[in-house]
Amino acid sequence: MVVIILYLLIVFIAVLSVLLYKRYYPVKGVPCVKKEQLSKDDNITILDLRDYNETADGSSSDSLNIPYAYLKRFHQEIPHKKIHAIASDKVELNLSLRFLASKGFEVNSFSLTNCLCDKKKGEINYGV
């Protein structure tokens, strides 16, 4: 009986660890870059992952708006070019970047609406 309880506890902790890792651990190798700092390269797709009601105020016409909740359904509409992701928070960003990487997309940079890049000089290379 004790062995079964211990086994279930270990399985529960393992599942919880995986879920927490995917949500909160930043994706390495994707720098935080302000949208204004991006070069005017035609090979970069600006993907806005924020909700539709959040992007109504400050969305630009050159970005593709697919919120994270709709990403599984509409990821085929994203061109296979380099991607700059715009998200509203860290969790939304981490989940989106992991999903896009699993589908074979190359995310080169990201920015958050309350980005730390505004407060520090240059880029933050660690993720979020």
TrEMBL record:
Organism of derivation: Jeotgalibacillus soli
Keywords: Membrane, Transferase, Transmembrane, Transmembrane helix
GO molecular function, one term: transferase activity
Highest taxon in the source lineage: Bacteria
InterPro entries listed in its UniProt record: Rhodanese-like_dom_sf
Protein name, entry field: Sulfurtransferase
Transmembrane segments: 6-25
